[in-house]
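Two quick folds needed for the group meeting slides. Do the first one here.
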Amino acid sequence: MAHVIGGMFEEMGSRVEYVPVDNQAAFEAIRNGDLTIGHEVWQATHQNAFYNAMEKGGLIDAGTHAAETLEEMGVPNWVIEQDLCPGLPNWEALKDCHENFATPDSGGKGRWLEGPQSWHGDVMPNRLKGLGLEDKWMVKFAGTGDALWVELEAAKKEGRGTIIFNWTPNFTDAEGFTFIEFPPYFDGCRIVDGGDMSTTGCGSPRGWLKKAANFRFPVTHPQAYAAFTKVSFTTDQIGTMAALVDQDKMTHEDAAKKWLADNEEVWKPWTASVLEEAN
């Protein structure tokens, strides 16, 4: 998505540099001017860092995408179709099916494969404890985000159940993926946010997907900023972008070029309207 937006800027005559950065450190970098924009701010995991940076000054809210977000543990649809855990997606089904999700490194327990621990800390291990599932399930943290997709493929080939951390929008929206329905989230239910063991079993909130920009961007590049505020991708559009990389194995650069070429009717009105206003 970064290269898609960058391609839009280049079409408008701007030069673009892509800078890899930790997703939590990005907001301070935008505030300080080391980065110009952040194109996807996920409410569930980024809102604290996002609002803290805004409060300090230097970062502005550049609008919200059409896509709604969710970051949660879940299963590929074939797990449900093969009845490996009767009662899913209700979380209470997990009380009686852990054997179908055991792996050689799980000590006989069912395994949840979380993302890297830097993503959410102990949210998922605390959830197991809060729900009283720690005797039957354990959490393993993936070394990288890509390890989640390796696990999906391996579990399907081996015919075993798998529960992994995933999110939407993502390429798995097209493949078929079901998020587990945990007790409803509410502000403060997680231990990291002031909750305790009686509340930390809560699930994840559905939320917005925002865009962030350095406060100088509207002044230094007014046309690019105006186009950026108009950008509003849907779940399907973002899922298609992700599939080009995660399924079709294209580079980010080539995937962006293909998406831009195939979807001119989506993005060209955003850039064209800005250029027309400037003239």
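Then this one, please, same format:
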Amino acid sequence: MRIDLHTHSTASDGTDSPADLVRNAAAAGLDVVALTDHDTTRGHAEAIAALPEGLTLVTGAELSCRLDGVGMHMLAYLFDADEPALAAERELVRDDRVPRAQAMVGKLRELGVPVTWDQVARIAGDGSVGRPHVAEALVELGVVPDVSGAFTPQWLADGGRAYVGKHELDPFEAIRLVKAAGGVTVFAHPSAVKRGQVVPEAALARLADAGLDGIEVDHMDHDEATRARLRGLAKELGLLATGSSDYHGSRKTCRLGEYTTDPEIYGEITRRATGAFPVPGAGGPA
């Protein structure tokens, strides 16, 4: 089985619609794909309706968190999307995205960049607006060569000249809320230092004690030595070690299925989940 447990669609900051994403996942030879848009489950229904036969969908979300002043992302799988406490927190994060993006546009204009809110809103479309959409505006204007080039201290990285904070969950509260909604939690790309400051690895023990289920080990932002170290930490702490592409369509260079999760780990994730169940494809519309 080929299992990719971290992808994004146009419901947040990917470039594939949810329907196109599942079709592309099947074409890439995946057996299981998780749709984990940022702080939203809005793309799930469309993905399920288009799910090709032979592909299983894991519903999820990537939750924005912050620990001791450092941003981090928490993958949440197979939770009850209608559970009110977790739904309310996701809504708070989403509601903060527009004023945050508008404030980043304002900072960029103060720095002499002729970006406009209309430009960013056009790029975001119906998705949950975020830094990648602002970054793409900088690419369109020729300020940076690619989206990754915008995530530097000069521009949009945490603490950067045009960075603006947003409402983010405490990760311990995120674990509690996801568990209460019957879901499973995995710390996304925990050592992606190229993105900026990361949570110290010593904090993994605290998160594990709080009920964290796993860490994303095999990821494009982890080199081989980092993956080996994280795999050892996962074993030491009794955490599941996952792998995934973090696919964003054309917005990033990673490919669907570039990194995958061991079927035994996937089986354990589904065993632990009680809020929702993987959806097998029945052959959606072409």
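Slide caption for protein two: The chain has a mean pLDDT of 94.
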